[in-house]
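Hey, can you fold this?
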Amino acid sequence: MPNDNILHPTSAVRARQPWFPSGRPGVGALPEHAAHTGLGTWWTDHPLRPRAAAVSCAGYAVLAGDPCATVPGDLAHLAYCYAVAPDSFLPVLGSAFVGIVPWERMIWAYRDPVPIARPAPAVTVRPLALADAPAVRALGPDLAWIAESWGGPAGLAASGRGWGTFRDGRLLSLACTFFAGSRHEDVAVATLPEERGQGVGSACLRALCRDIITRGRIPSWTCSRDNHPSRRLASKSGFQLIHTYVHYALGAPVTGSRPLAEAARP
């Protein structure tokens, strides 16, 4: 019997949005982000009468539906992703990948606006423009993850969803919307190691949050429970904890199928 499961272009997300409710914070905004940007991968177990679905982008995945409609080999393309799924999916995930590692996460929402930090006079805080793509790329491979949800440095720079702190034309820190939903925008910050602790990350993060609020949306922040520096930055920047959940770091596919995702995200 032929296998009817299919990888759809992300435009198909628009037609199947009931699988994933709109307006969710954190990684819950991933399906809306994929639908809006056309980035990522959409999978269903059947092209016309789906019972299970998964959408992935930038190394993260969200699954929904009936896990009984899924066989382990169907999910090989999610290898090395961080997956959010109902507990009912755990048996099929356990059979699909060499290892799955649970990771407790926290979602914060922006509640208490605080004054934008004022870095040193030589530092400029401003929104990114397309011409800043080389500066985003110059952050280096260790911080390249921050542009992945926009397809790379050029996509992020042109998105209108990023702010940076600059000194003498060099990008020191970048804050951006990582997943843009209809109600929440989940944000991320990347700062050069030698510039951390100087307030440059806080400055561009708070400017980004003000921009998101101007668009009529709510900034959200997602981090590991064990990431204490990230939790401190969220707290001092006006975020309040609203939810905890568990996602799963997926290993190699047991089938040996070539995965679409090549590496886990920090």
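Oh, and this one too while you're at it.
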Amino acid sequence: MKKITYGLFFGDSITYGEYDGVFGGWVDILKRYALQKFHEGNGDELILFNLGIGGETTEGLLKRLPYELNARNSADGNLVFLGYGANDLAIKDGEYIVGPEVFKNNIEAAVELAGPFSNEIYLVSILPVSQKIDGVVVASGKVRTNAEVEAYNQILKDIASEHSLGYIDFYAAFFEDKEILLSADGVHPNEKGYGMMAEIAIPIIEKYI
């Protein structure tokens, strides 16, 4: 009998796929890939939910996570992906939106909430920012730096290691070619960047289809 597994992708606008008018972002590429595999009759069904919300931080995640998990809970199992940090680490008016210690506590709390629903939890790294906005105050009044991105990614890596979670290192894949993989705002990927993210993530979801 075929199993139906759910894949729940929580995150911000990069999970949502903002600025990708062609493919709809990396999660939507994965959704189409999983659906195609199912229609080809290659095994179990994996249904993916894009639960990204633009501008969301880990504070917002904790408010909605229990409800989202309860609303989408497959008896055959769930995969949970958490892609946060790009908004948390931004500095506005001299203060972090969500400081490193609170960020760490929030991710750990999210992992604990997801635990009863999933044995397969993946933390998604934060992408580097373009050189042109690294340390620059942008129109929104926010400042992001790659030094902060690396520091917050280290928090994610440490949590993944400590709790035996998956870690998807998009940062390392992007860093060298970030100027051609990021869109004009220097934060969100362009179509090429989103496509690359999907390529990296496909081997992960293939285990479940």
